[in-house]
Amino acid sequence: MSRKIFIAGNWKMNKTAAETKELCEALKAKFASFCPCKAEVAVCPPFTSIATAVEALKGSNIKVGAQNIHWADNGAFTGEISGAMLKEMGIEYVIIGHSERRQYFGETDETVNKRIAAALKYDLKPIVCIGETLEEREGNKTEEVLAKQIKDGFANIAAADMAKVTIAYEPVWAIGTGKTATPDMAEETHAFIRKTFADLYGAEVAEALVIQYGGSMKPENSKDLVAQKDIDGGLIGGAALKADSFYDLVANAAL
Ligand code: PGA
């Protein structure tokens, strides 16, 4: 079964609205002749830049996503953003459970689970991040950690909703460090992730599931990573912040 390549830029806490306009205009020009049949491409700016990105990317093949979503419909949750608010912006994707949210903001598998349910409720497509720390990898705990993140993160999420879900496997030790998992190492883990989803939802759902790799993916290594059988794209931090490097990364992986 052939899965479509999906590459998304996670801008993290970068780009003001003015900088977003500039980057999106450059991306729109760069991707003008890029056929969406080759890959799905999205950018996920900070909340304050989403409206600007949606406007600037109108008429392009580049989709827009957010970096977080709260699980409640509304209410006394200072600083949070609801699914209804995001949906109204006209976006399609939302990143959930990034390791920086887990590490710095107390995100757990349980809150990830609630956020996935909220995204689905508002017809947003979740990009759910999982991944092990260096300590966990060195302690041979990678599979145990990933299995738990998947089991608890996807508790009560229906098989029928899985077509809207993307997984981003991001080994924490590879994020922003310049250390990429080798294609073989990443493939081994991606295959484990797909098998874990097959155990939960059956082979058909698992085969259709898009699993991105994330962690120092760049134009120089995107081709070799995405060439692996179970690596279906990437979630890109640093290399997504410049139009040239993001385009080259996508083109190398998908053309
Ligand atoms: P990086 O970040 O590409 O800068 O390593 C990836 C991510 O955290 O999504």
Describe the structure in your own words.
- 41% of the residues lie in helices and 16% in strands.
- It is an alpha/beta fold and 255 residues long.
- Strands 1-2-3-4-5-6-7-8 form an 8-stranded parallel barrel, surrounded by 5 helices.
- It is globular.
- The two termini are 19 Å apart.
- The relative contact order is 0.16.
- 2-phosphoglycolic acid binds next to β8.
Topology readout:
Elements: E1 5-10, H1 17-30, E2 39-44, H2 50-56, E3 62-66, H3 83-88, E4 93-96, H4 99-104, H5 109-121, E5 125-130, H6 134-138, H7 142-153, E6 166-169, H8 183-201, H9 203-208, E7 210-214, H10 222-226, E8 233-236, H11 243-254
Parallel strand pairs: 1-2, 1-8, 2-3, 3-4, 4-5, 5-6, 6-7, 7-8
2-phosphoglycolic acid is lined by residues 10, 170, 175-176, 214-217, 235-239.
